[in-house]
Specification:
Largest sheet: 6 strands, mixed
Number of strands: 6
Strand order of the largest sheet: 2-1-6-5-4-3
Number of helices: 5
Helix content: 25-40%
Distance between the termini: 26 Å
Low-confidence stretches: none
Structural class: alpha+beta
């Protein structure tokens, strides 16, 4: 079952080069994205941004969209590429490269981020987004 979890999470990732800011700032595109993703998520789905020792939790698909709006607010462009998906049983650790350009800046920056996706009954029950990969690795038990 856990390989199926990895495949599910990989299928939900944006294609390389897709500008997440453009999708999230376009109400029609964002609504279409939420509609397409909804069947793969539990109705009680939660997501959390775990950044620099703080956590903010969002609920449901509306919460997922709100979390992306909050995260993407300072960015002019933002894209993500999967480096590796690690099978952790009912959870999948995603290691990603994120690329973004801040409003008013010509330079694109790269960060090495992570996410833990928890799968229950074949659907996503929780997603936790991390700016610190080691913290994510620790939370799935890969480091002490």
């Amino acid at each position: 079952m856990s390989q199926e979890n990895v495949e599910l999470v990989l299928a939900l990732q944006p294609r390389p080069g897709v500008d997440l800011v453009a999708i999230n700032r376009d109400d029609d595109a964002a609504a279409a994205w939420v509609e397409a993703m909804t069947p793969y998520f539990h109705p009680d789905f939660e997501c959390a941004h775990r950044l620099l020792g703080t956590e903010r939790t969002y609920s449901g698909m509306d919460g997922l969209r709100e979390s992306w709006r909050d995260w993407l607010a300072p960015w002019a462009t933002y894209r993500s590429e999967v480096e590796e998906a690690i099978d952790c049983g009912d959870r999948v650790l995603m290691l990603v490269y994120d690329f973004g350009r801040r409003e008013g800046s010509p330079a694109e920056v790269r960060s090495n981020n992570a996410a833990i996706w928890t799968i229950r009954d074949g659907k996503v029950a929780r997603a936790e987004f991390y700016a610190d990969r080691e913290w994510a690795r620790k939370d799935v038990g890969l480091v002490e």
